[in-house]
Design brief:
The protein is an alpha/beta fold and 307 residues long. The protein has a domain at 2-26 and 63-77 and 96-268: TIM Barrel (Alpha-Beta Barrel), CATH 3.20.20. The protein has helices at residues 2-12, 29-39, 43-61, 72-76, 79-95, 110-120, 151-160, 176-179, 188-199, 221-230, 268-271, 277-280, 288-304, and strands at residues 16-20, 67-70, 99-106, 124-126, 129-131, 138-141, 163-169, 182-183, 186-187, 212-216, 236-238, 262-266. The strands form 3 sheets. It has an 8-stranded parallel beta barrel with strand order 1-2-3-6-7-10-11-12, surrounded by 7 helices. A two-stranded antiparallel sheet has the order 4-5. A two-stranded antiparallel ribbon has the order 8-9. Helix 2 runs antiparallel to helix 3, helix 3 crosses helix 13 (288-304) and helix 6 packs parallel to helix 7 (151-160).
């Protein structure tokens, strides 16, 4: 997976991943009206709205970015209909050649982790018949339970060319309450970073990077530089650009000297660009996906300043 991701990043000269985290309040009214007229204000309507919105965004950005990152919670809240929209979004994105990072943040004991691993990046076995369910190329994981909660995913990474991004230093304001605690002179995030580096040694690809990556928030540039030295062969998935305040200037230390090593996520800054004044004055409500495309182009230009 990691070699495929690097190949696409280099081809497009763009280390941007678009977070498909739709919320009803920033989806154009005309899309919502059509769904409500057909399904009323129901979970089925919400799922239909998300899928139509996502397809339009994908149609306008697939030739600019290597990957998308749908956040499963936005879909899961609407039950079975929402989960189907998540799956259908992934199918559609893959048909356009995009790499999928499923933002699922799973983390549980071995037997449960095996079930998550089979469903998300492996195959489920139904009395001898194997089926691929979610079809993500990689997923995010929470390592709080330790190695036995990570190990079940690793064989699937090898067998199905899949990847993981493990939470190390997250972008949320209160991440330091736990992640910055010291144990024997080391911060928790440093300890986790060393573990991720160790776990990833067996999955290093042709380009020198592991299929086990790390989530390192864009709002912590100083810590990112420390983690870059701790994890030289680890690809960073970097949330927090744009809506959470980080700009390209904050991100130089996330990359290696080869200009690789990080993929930068923007969610609201792209998919809700039509709500921003700079785009609202240029694009109509029905041109929301064109605004998203312009936001991707602007982000690419911003990132190229440091690459």
């Amino acid at each position: 997976m990691i070699d495929n991701l690097i190949e696409k990043i280099e081809k497009l000269q763009n280390p941007t991943v678009v977070g498909l985290d739709p919320r009803l309040h920033f989806i154009p009214d005309y899309i919502k009206k059509e769904a409500y007229d057909k399904y009323a204000k129901t979970p089925k309507a919400a799922a239909s709205i998300f899928l139509e919105f996502n397809k339009a965004i994908i149609d306008h950005i697939y030739d600019l970015v290597p990957a998308i990152k749908p956040q499963v919670a936005m879909y899961e809240q609407f039950g079975a209909e929402g989960i189907q929209a998540y799956i259908d979004t992934i199918k559609y994105a893959k048909s356009k050649g995009l790499i999928i990072i499923g933002d699922v943040k799973r983390g549980d004991i071995t037997s449960t982790a095996e079930a998550y691993a089979d469903g998300h990046i492996g195959r489920v076995d139904i009395d001898g018949e194997k089926h691929e369910i979610y079809m993500e190329d990689s997923i995010t994981l929470n390592p709080y339970l330790g190695y036995d909660s990570i190990e079940p995913y690793m064989d699937h990474c090898k067998n199905y060319n899949r990847g993981l991004f493990i939470l190390v230093k997250t972008s949320n304001p209160n991440s330091g309450e736990i992640q910055d605690l010291e144990v024997n002179g080391e911060k928790i995030y440093e300890i986790v970073g060393k573990l991720v580096d160790k776990w990833g040694k067996s999955l290093i690809g042709k380009r020198g990077y592991s299929s086990i990556g790390a989530v390192v928030g864009a709002t912590h540039p100083a810590q990112a530089e420390e983690l870059r030295s701790i994890m030289p062969n680890t690809y960073f998935l970097v949330p927090g650009y744009g809506a959470q305040g980080a700009t390209a200037k904050d991100l130089k230390g996330y990359f290696n000297k080869d200009g690789l090593g990080a993929i930068i996520n923007s969610s609201r800054g792209i998919i809700a660009a039509h709500k921003k004044e700079e785009y609202r004055n240029r694009f109509s409500e029905k041109e929301f996906a064109l605004a998203a495309r312009e936001a991707v182009i602007a982000m690419k230009k911003d990132l190229q300043q440091i690459l």
